[in-house]
User: Fold Snurportin-1 from Brachypodium distachyon.
Amino acid sequence: MMGGQLIFKTKSPVPNHLKPPSAMAPPQHDPRRPYKRAAISDQQRRRDFALQTQSARRADAQARARSLANSLLSPSYPPVDQAPASPEANHDDRSHEPAVNEVATAAAKLRGPEGRRWFACQIMLPEWMVDAPPHLARDWNVCARPAGQRCLVVSTNGITVSRLRNGTVLHRFPSALPNGSKRGISGPASSYSILDCIFHEPDETYYIVDMICWRGYSLYDCTAEFRFFWINSKLTETSAGDPPSTYHRYRFCAVPMYESTLEGLQAAYSGSTPYVKDGLLFYNKHAHYQTGITPLTLVWKDEACSQYVLDTDSEGQVPTEQHVVLELQEDGKLITSDDPPIIFGTLNSEFIQKSNLRPGNLVRFSVRDESVKLVDGKMEIGELQFAGKLNRSRTFADSHSKVLFQYAARHAPLRIEDLVASVQSNSMELESTDVEMQD
Assistant:
């Protein structure tokens, strides 16, 4: 890094069908040595660690799915003297995993910000892609992410309920999902399905981006590759994809998923979709469904596949300086939403009191470019400028990967050319291996 700016080499050639409208033709060079963008973060290290530890840290998946289904349908938030520990606590220690009734009880007692936080923690959230994975073509799938409201949908006991990340009910309706309406009850009445969806309002369709449970069978510990297979195969067993009717208020559609080859990348990036795109989603094929932020799912955007690459202010305008949203702790520290969190600064008690801030508040800051530097793959901000307190509708602070993605997008963005170069590198490595084996 020089002078506060990230410096990268020239990109490799990109197929015309993958060039964004503003892309300029990059210079030619030896096609046997595709360009690899230098890594600017520790994202790959965390991807490797997440894969190695996902089996050791998984909880009783059936118990989790059952308690989640109960909480999504009818959570209650009675007054409590002290909020219970998060049901996701101690997830790395199998001896401390909560029983079904403990998780359900904890979820029922949570209220206000704690309740919203609990519900938000039940969804698997992607990191922002700041480095292209080294084996993108071999180990990853890609899809065009629909623009809309991320939510969990559960169907059971003749009713279907969708809830946003903050726990608020989006819709309560009959559906053609298993046991999703009084007409469609089949098998045990208590059987339930849980889908991870994005509700696309223009066509009133729930686009399924993942499947957590189907007819009571938990998919938490199944690979992403298997979950996507089930989404397509099981959905066709129902009429959930049919147009709306009396017993089927909203249509459900599986998001087309592709191998991250050049052809798959082209289909997701440039192909037509029935919905408005909001970037690309990448899933590691071997990853389980892990609640919270995970580097095994990634989101990437540019101007050609998303209306909103850079964050905007309350008036919909891109501010001249980057903004970050951090959570205030009791000791005044300002942290990201990562686990473990990244500390970006500290507020003194006098400023906290003067600004009427409390622990748990989400606070917006502006960042000057000259105050940013990268150290060991992490972003450090030398100076934060207070820009205001956020309203309660938002649940979490920004993640470290989002802050870094936003910074890179302003200065040296990860472009479609870089993703293509990663795919080309994979192909050449495989070709080289094949030649060596034949020799």
Q: What stands out?
A: The longest strand covers residues 205-214. The radius of gyration is 23 Å.
